[in-house]
Amino acid sequence: MGAIETRRIWVSSALNDYLDFPHVGQLFMIEREVFHKKNATCTLERALGITIQTSVQADARGLLATNRGHWAIENSCHYVIDWNFNQDRSRIRTGHGPSNVTRLRRVAVGVIKSFIKGRESVAEKMRSLSRNTSLVFDYLRMTENSARRVPAPSG
Fold it and tell me: Would you say 62 and 55 are in contact if contact means Cβ atoms under 8 Å apart?
């Protein structure tokens, strides 16, 4: 890859009694330092967080691993949805609309991923399906041509 990343975490429960926040277990600060090999620059980000987990339930190493795992999911799932459906520009903002549309998009990505063969991406599969919409119905087995034929019982 083109970067070297170093993550550090500090955790504390010293401020819990002063916070007006329900169920506080610990506060933490994660520092992410990234050295970009391509242009020899370094970036530094700090994020503050609150967790309900106490230091007994999750130590610093556990919190850092949980945070890292969250971003792995965020990047793999949400990036695909945002990139392919341009979700960040969605104008759906009221009621249950945003969460319902997100669920539909996730289902669509799941269905599309189940039909990807080889190294094809979700975006490539979406483009091929948009050029030949009858394939969508075939993939979903919604047409008579694509429905599985159940053999007639013998005898």
Answer: no
Residue (of 118, 114, 86) closest to 101 by Cα position: 86
What values do phi and psi take at 149, rounded to 5? Answer: -85, 125
Q: Measured on CA atoms in the order 58, 60, 61, 67, is the torsion positive or negative?
A: positive
21/117 Cα distance (integer angstroms): 48
Tokens of 8: 């550090």
Closest by Cα among 43, 12, 37 to 25 = 12
Q: In what order do the strands lie in the sheet with 3-12?
A: 3-12, 26-36, 41-51
109-143 confidence digits (pLDDT tens): 888 888 787 888 888 888 888 888 787 777 777 76
- Tell me the two tokens of residue 67: 């945070």
Is there a contact between 87 and 105 (Cβ–Cβ < 8 Å)?
yes
Q: Which residue has the tokens 């189940």?
A: 114
Strands (E), the chain: 3-12, 26-36, 41-51
* C-alpha span between 102 and 140 (Å, rounded): 20
In this prediction the pTM is 0.48
Task: Give CA–CA dist 53/59, Å, rounded.
Answer: 9
Terminal-to-terminal C-alpha distance of the chain: 63
